[in-house]
Amino acid sequence: MPELPIDDEQAPLYTLGQVADMLRVQQAFLRRLDQHDVISPQRSPGGQRRYSRRDILVVRHVTRMADEGMTLVAIRRILELEDELKRLQEELREARRRLEETNGPAA
Predict the structure, then answer these.
(1) Would the keyword GTP-binding be found if you checked this record's keyword annotation (predicted)?
(2) Residue 60 contacts residue 24 (beta carbons within 8 Å)
(3) Are 59 and 30 in contact, with CB atoms under 8 Å apart?
(4) What count of other Cβ atoms lies within 10 Å of the Cβ of residue 55?
(5) Average pLDDT value over all residues in the chain
(6) Predicted local confidence at residue 22, as pLDDT
(7) What is the pLDDT of residue 1?
(8) Which of 40, 75, 89, 95 has the highest local Cβ count within 10 Å?
(9) Model confidence, pTM
(10) Does residue 56 register a pLDDT over 60?
């Protein structure tokens, strides 16, 4: 059976209004996140913002940080650093895997 869009966490399925209602935030807040490059949802053919489940999780994370008083500039930087940390952790896992293949399991 082919994968459905609902199964894809990256599928842009939700409108700005739906996300605002789900997360109990103002639509203007979501627009501001996009304007400040904190989160950039995909666009429909008509130019409307469309959010994926992954985007919604990020917006929820951002909302918590904003509620704690962080600025959008600071939040954007934190998200960048979190992404970099994930990438570096994956590189480290891959390097350890390759080293183990070369040298055998560590004692």
Answers:
(1) no
(2) no
(3) yes
(4) 23
(5) 91
(6) 94
(7) 57
(8) 75
(9) 0.78
(10) yes
